[in-house]
Amino acid sequence: MAEKECILRMRDMAISFKTANGLVKAVRGTDLNVFKGETVAIVGESGSGKSVTVKQIMGIRSANEVVESGSIEFTYIDDGGAKRTVDIMKLSERELTSLKGNHIAMVFQDPLTSLDPTMNIGRQLSESIVAHLHLEGEALHARCVELLDLVGITDPEARLRSYPHQLSGGMRQRVVIAIALSCNPDLLICDEPTTALDVTIQARILQLIIDLQRRMGISVIFITHNLGVVAKVADYVNVMYAGKVIEAGTIDDVFFDPRHPYTWGLLSSMPSVSVDRSERLYTIHGNPPNMLNDIVGDAFAPRNPYALDMDFEQEPPRFVVNEHHWAATWLLDPRAPKVEMPSQLKGRIALMKTEGGGESDR
Amino acid sequence: MEKTVSEEGFRLCTKAHDEVAEKEYADYSYAKEIAGRFLANKGAAISLIIIATIVVMAIVAPMISPYAYDDVQTQYNNLPPRIPGLEQIGIFDGTSDGVDLYAQKGASDQYHFFGTDSLGRDIWTRVWSGTRISLTIALWAVVIDVFIGVAYGLISGYFGGKVDIVLQRITEVLSSIPQLVIVTLMLVVMKPGLQNIIVALIITGWIDMSRIVRAQVLRLKSQEFVLAARTLGVSAWNIIFREILPNTLAQIIVTFMFSIPNAIFLEAFLAFVGLGVPAPLASLGSMINDGYKSAMTYPYMVVAPVVVLAILMLGFNLFADGLRDAVDPDAQ
Amino acid sequence: MKKYVAKRLAISVMTLLIILFVLFLMLSFMPGSPFNNEEKMSPDQIAQLKAYYGLDKPVLERFVIYVFNMLHGDFGVSYNIQTNMPIAQMIGGRLAITVGIGLEAGVLGALVGLVLGVIAALRRHTAWDSAATVIAVLGVSLPSFVFALGLSYFLGYRLKLFPILFDTSAPLSSSVLPVIALSMFTLASVERYTRSEMVSIMESDYMMLAQSKGLPKAKLVINHALRNTLISVITVLAPLLVNLMTGSLVIEKIFSIPGLGSLYITAIQSNDYNVVLAISFIYSVIFILTMLLVDILYGVIDPRIRLAGGRD
Prior knowledge:
The complex is a heterotrimer. Chain A is 32% helix and 24% strand. Chain A is an alpha/beta fold. In chain A, helix 8 links the parallel strand 7 and strand 8. In chain A, helix 7 (169-181) runs parallel beside helix 8 (199-216). By secondary structure, chain B is mainly alpha-helical. A two-stranded antiparallel ribbon of chain B has the order 1-2. In chain B, helix 8 (179-190) packs antiparallel against helix 9 and helix 11 (236-272) runs antiparallel to helix 13 (299-327). Chain C is mostly helical. Chain C has helices at residues 2-28, 43-52, 59-71, 87-122, 127-141, 144-158, 171-202, 205-212, 217-235, 237-254, 260-269, 273-301, 303-306. In chain C, helix 7 runs antiparallel to helix 10. The longest helix of chain C has 36 residues, at 87-122. Chain C is flat, with a radius of gyration of 24 Å. Chains in contact: A-B, A-C, B-C. Chain B binds chain C through residues 43, 172-173, 176-181, 184-186, 188-189, 191, 261, 265-266, 268-269, 272-275, 288, 292, 295-296, 299, 302, 306, 309-310, 313-314, 316-318, 321, 330-331, and chain C through 15, 18-19, 22-23, 26-27, 29-31, 137-138, 140-143, 145-146, 149, 152-153, 157, 164, 196, 199-200, 203, 242, 245-246, 249-250, 253-254, 264-265, 268-269, 271, 276, 280, 283-284, 287-288, 291.
């Protein structure tokens, strides 16, 4: 594998929200790396901070948000053909505007509310094209048709004149994807793009994203809480819990050799069809922590059946497992007792390896 | 950063440690939260003071005043305001264009805080007893309207089907006739009087409340906790009173608070067009009606009731606003 | 869309007929006599008068005759304000004045309210926003008397900027104060609602998507936020209309405007049956007509209704 270029480097992102009950520390120091042409997944339950982290890349902030720290280095080829690297967190409103929709684009979660109900598809599709590529008339129209075709919408000419409410959820999401790709972005961010769709449509949209990514060589950041989706789509996985990434590695690393008890929990709780019927469904005990309070030690400790005393006192640093795999758990410290992943999970992974042998041919 | 840690820290934790999480979400009172939000809102807090002050004045002022609201003393008519204490500074000293009218009419021993009207009646007393009447009318009308409106909305919303269709048709037609017209005609037919005004206000005021209650009921009806109650065999009436009503209470109270200034205004308005409480009773509206013609020459006759009416309505509106924001905080 | 309009139209007409009938009924129960000096007349004379005016016929028959005449522009005659004067004539000019002032006030209030609301939404938590809130609260809470009398006194009497009483020979300058006073409630309500709608629209999902496209702020606000806000605001125009009607009566009285409202008040106080009926009905017509227009306008602007698809 040739040395890939890192196009996005996020370091030490920390975001808090001012609420009526106090300051909620939603993101507590997150790092992220995205390489060219790769799909990076961010997995975590609701409230883990994944959406907030990624919205920073687009400069989308709520009124009560406070950026405590963080830098995002983004490398791209500008309109003149030169390679540039900027820190997104330091850009002005105007500079950010020329990046958004143009070099970085986003696909949102709920297609039913993502589109302006009073504007037809054609107009909504052409907005970025007009703003960034300055196309008009025939050229604009042709591009719009081309885009709708690209995302698999039949009869694109007619669809351009339709309004969002006349399209199904799946079709609307395709339109959203088309809008995102309209200016050939370097980076595409997908925030749970299939969560709100029917299962059958989910698969199709997912496949669409994979195909487009391969074809256009875009880098993708994919947020989801569904590990099955991660397995299909991602090259690299970041597992987030309570505002921090607690394990990261390639797909093979994280699925076949998980090290953090939370990741064990996640993998174990995936319901699987092929397993022994008498097996109980696994759940992770307890609830995520209240982010209003300061967290001492490992955030996952209270729910961790393998917690060490240390976990309640000091936050675990990152322990390297191999060149692209690390986990932040005291269990990896040489002084820690040897704890193995639950046998159930071991069995599952063995099964996964034999069944889905084609895991690594991407 | 290398910290030398003892071997001990690396033992598996043996104490039961997952109950910690549960404690964080206990201890929460809905009512306290709303009250807290309400009082934090400056406008709302002020409104509380305003309303309290006015109500107290309305009750107490006529009682302790040396004049009665219908004390006609034509020889002391058209006197400007005179307030002890302030008159030393030169304002409200009973003079107009330099002439001491109190002395002129032989009333040097009298103090009329708001002056007197064209029949020599003390305006201060009349304003506060008028406020009493305005408040009484408004409260009666609104309270009864709440009962009617809530009942109507609950029934129409919960039972749905034909019942709902019929009931809604009726409200549609009724609400198509401007409230103004209905109330006016009713009073024309029934002749103005304290009770008739209240009845006229009642007839049209329930519609808004019933709409809001119905909308809430419809929304709640399809939620799962109602479905759960039904499956358990809870009777319709029990569902309405135990499940649905408590959840609509907040909306009901807010609408109730908004209806009060509405009723106060309507009454004042009716009085202003001549359909108000009959003389010698005074309501704020009838006083404005009596006084506005001479607004240029004797402004105080109309300013007093207008200001009190304005403050009263402002107070209730701020209160209702604050309540609504406290109950349902939107993006503020 | 056509079906939508037709349906609305049909309902409106039906409602009007029902209203007319109800009004008619109510008035037949009015105590007191429609005639002046009834006490001085002999029963024979009263009977004669009644026959002359067709008052001796049963209610239903009178109603039908009334509707028939009305469709020909004949509203009957006044009994005691100006005996035997055709009501249509009495109302004619006044209707124009009242509707004129009402329209001006409504439009002025809505436009200014819209602008203020947008500014307040875009400049949240600044001085603009606070000022706008103060205006909104005052405008909504204070009854029209306050504005009418206040403006009249300060701008009219004291500063002598505008005339205090309506003058048909100088309709423009003398309608300034009444129109402003009447528009306050509309202004405040529209402003408030616009602000809150706009704020929630600015935080909606589709605004987020539009922002992520890297569009300049002005485009975002005008093309997306404003359009959606306008649609929402139209839906709240109805209660404002009601307020304009009650307000116009007050305004007409205070500024001595020879409009429909002052005639209405006089008719009520002198028990002039026919006039009261006619004006009540006209108010209802104005009300329903405007609601109908607003409904149609809403249907035209909101593509969810305009196109066969209907709403989600």
